[in-house]
Design a protein that fits this description.
single chain; 410 residues; five-stranded mixed β-sheet; three-stranded mixed β-sheet; globular; disordered N terminus
Length: 410
């Protein structure tokens, strides 16, 4: 039976931070054998490129780039595809049904946040979203036997395939210069394809392949893995479980923001796991947890067998731990929040006992790395030394020489 607020399930931000450090595997690092466990907790955003690597650097003992690249490109136990919020996400290949299939909207559940910008192109073409999405889906089997280098080329090739399926009076408009960023390098059709690749990804029609220099490559899930994407009946419920496990206490509104989907779609998915949730009051705000996680939330020390969680960490931009709707839990000051979560180009975050106490940025020149740390509060000399040690370890992980690590306090 589900317990309610009246039964006294209450907590505070300190307990929430310690709980989340544990479930995000930031209280103590996992061995190399825990790579899939770390990546599968809630997926790893890979925007900007390399963000997923930095996230695993903070979660895997002795983490090295060759280990990560071998898992993603050779063993293919990890996969990269457009997932929640339409961003590139790295997750275990054997959990593709969880990180992709549930995101496909049903009739009346669009639009997704990341396809709203398509309206300008639809108006120009005089075609609807529902008319064009099937045409892009019909073109994508081309990737079952082809791999395309660069996102720009992917948009161009697929736009050409879709053009052949359009009425003749629409083709000129389709091939006109883009109404968006680079009209000299993109057509209206290419822009439409770019928007619609995200929902196509949820069906396994397009995934990221091996990087070719600085450019990504793209192919289909079937071509990359050797078999089609097979959705499982529990996939929707498991996606909700992952979100609640990593970000509880949480709300359906926060879940919708994390997915980037419509409130209607989020509510449908959320309700699939409703019987496994319990309400929790956290500092005056109500949220929900998985029943199975209540004990760990109330007694987070059980997840810190070695007393971990208090050390300083350098989390990269868009680390999963930072990807939360209730930002005040880890950074109460609203003015400082604007320094961490930006519209573009987020910095990394300096973490102490689960709270953000500063930001850090990197600058690379050839094989040299510079790190600039801005602290929001004064730290002890030993803590500053720990930051320098973290910077040295991160530079080594990136196979660069640390030229300088500067620290300043706001």
């Amino acid at each position: 039976m589900r317990r309610g607020i009246a039964t006294g399930i209450t907590t505070d931000n300190a307990h929430i931070r310690r709980y989340r450090l544990c479930v995000h595997h930031l209280n103590r690092k996992l061995p190399a054998s825990g790579l899939l466990e770390a990546a599968g907790a809630c997926g790893l955003q890979n925007s900007p490129p390399g963000a997923w690597e930095t996230a695993l650097f903070n979660r895997i003992e002795g983490c090295a780039l060759p280990l990560l690249h071998r898992a993603l490109y050779e063993e293919k136990t990890l996969l990269q595809a457009w997932s929640y919020r339409g961003v590139p996400v790295v997750f275990p290949t054997n959990q593709s049904d969880i990180f992709l299939s549930p995101l496909a909207a049903r009739q009346g559940e669009e639009p997704w946040i990341y396809t709203r910008g398509i309206t300008l192109a639809l108006d120009y073409l005089g075609l609807s979203f529902d008319e064009l999405l099937p045409l892009v889906k019909e073109a994508l089997p081309y990737l079952d036997c082809h791999t395309i280098r660069s996102k720009e080329e992917l948009d161009r090739v697929l736009a050409g395939l879709v053009a052949d399926r359009l009425p003749e009076n629409k083709r000129k408009l389709w091939n006109d210069p883009s109404l968006y960023g680079n009209p000299d390098r993109q057509t209206v059709g290419g822009a439409v394809v770019s928007f619609l690749l995200r929902p196509c990804s949820f069906l396994g029609l397009v995934v990221f392949g091996r990087r070719d220099g600085i450019s990504p490559t793209f192919t289909s899930y079937k071509n990359w893995t050797g078999h089609p994407l097979a959705p499982l009946s529990e996939a929707e419920k498991e996606l909700v479980r992952k979100y609640l496990h990593c970000y509880g206490p949480a709300t359906v509104r926060g879940f919708a923001g994390w997915l980037g989907c419509s409130p209607k779609q989020a509510k449908r998915l959320w309700n699939s796991a409703a019987e496994e949730m319990e309400p929790v009051l956290a500092e005056g705000k109500e949220g929900y947890m998985l029943s199975a996680d209540i004990e760990l939330l109330l007694h987070p020390e059980a997840g810190h067998p070695e007393g971990g969680g208090g050390e300083l960490l350098l989390l990269g931009a868009h680390d999963p731990y930072l990807d939360l709707p209730d930002r005040s839990v880890i950074l109460p000051d609203a003015a400082l929040q604007k320094r961490v979560w930006k519209t573009v180009a987020n910095p990394g975050a300096v973490l102490k006992e689960g709270k953000i106490v500063g930001t850090w940025k990197t600058k690379t020149a050839k094989d040299k790395l510079e790190i600039a740390v801005t602290l929001f509060e004064e730290l002890e000399p030993g803590e500053k030394q720990k930051i320098l040690t973290c910077a040295e370890e991160y530079a080594a992980f990136r196979r660069l020489d640390l030229r300088k690590c500067s620290l300043c306090v706001l």
